[in-house]
Amino acid sequence: MTTRKLSPVTLFVLSLLLSGLLGTQCHPLAHPVSVEQPGVRLLTPDLGLHGSPSWSPDGTRLVFSSAPAPRGGSRPEIYTMDTQGGNRVRLTDNSYGDYAPAWSPKGDRIAFAVLQDKIYTICTMNPDGSDVVRLVEGRSPVWSPDGEKIAFFVGDEGTAEIFVWEQGRVTQLTSNKYYDVFPSWSPDGRQIVFVSKRGEGFQLYVMNADGSEQHQLTSGPDTYDEPEWSPDGRWIVCRHSPPLSSGRSTNVGLLDIQTGQIQVLLENQLSHSFAWSPDGRQLAFAVVGDASDIYVMDVATVLGKPFP
Q: Where are the beta strands (DSSP E) in 117-201?
């Protein structure tokens, strides 16, 4: 019998769904524990399931997914808002679930994943929600820096592979028995970092943009998930999980690619869906719980030193 490999994010989401099914009547809905501190501000004070932020290329707006709380009710739709959390505009309105929006670096299109009949399909649309075009089966779309390609993955909790779509042509980049997910482009478009479990835990791997020269970036007992390459190319932000025996909890980690050292940006195990601002100075992310919130972090303020 094949053993399915669940990523830390998948395990956590499943636990949230189960707790929602079993415990919605046990306590009132509430925001996740606040992570506001100097340099970290809340953009979504309304109670809802807000997530998957992505910046416009001019840095003035964010696109994100949102659904009313509690979980299991209405399916998420795609919205935009300004960087203070105001001027919210709804872009999609359908009976499907719309997830993981990503704003093109060109600014002219937004990619997102649609869940219909248990199948994820990647679509694109104009920034005002018009001209929706279905492209290919897949999930978690990410644009290449030149805005010409979209990397994504296809698969379930057992095995998944990474692909790239370009002008109607689809290229498979990984082909193995492992769970390869969450691709993120280097700022020069030459490489892709992704998550894979090819040993004891989930680690970060890097490959060329054509899928060649795949190699492991992280190792050891710590595990890593949801990487996002910084605009200057030096850093990768991710969910960082030390082993339980260490007594440390999952956190938002900042990996220095040059040294291989990781530092903690935020001690919060509920944070995920990271998105760098175009200038690399701010980081948008979601915090999940019964409800989900979107925050923006000024990285230099949090680190207490200039960044980048």
A: 119-125, 133-137, 139-143, 150-155, 160-166, 169-172, 181-185, 191-196
Asked whether 115 and 99 are in contact (CB, 8 A), the reply is: yes
- The reply to whether 308 falls in a domain is no
299, containing H or E segment: helix 299-303
Tokens of 134: 């279905």
Give pTM, 2 decimals. Answer: 0.90
What is the rounded radius of gyration, in angstroms, for the C-alpha atoms of the chain?
18
Tell me which residue range forms the domain holding 280: 40-298
Retrieve residue 223's tokens.
């595990």
Contact yes or no for 297/265 (Cβ under 8 A): yes
Q: Is pLDDT above 50 for 40?
A: yes
Domain assignment present for residue 243? The answer is yes
C-alpha–C-alpha distance, residues 112 and 251, integer Å: 26
In sequence order, which residues have a C-beta less than 8 Å from that of residue 212 and are 6 or more positions away?
Answer: none
Cα 249 to Cα 149: distance, rounded to the nearest angstrom? 36
Summarised one tens digit per residue, pLDDT across range 200-243 is: 789 999 999 999 999 999 999 999 999 999 999 999 999 999 99
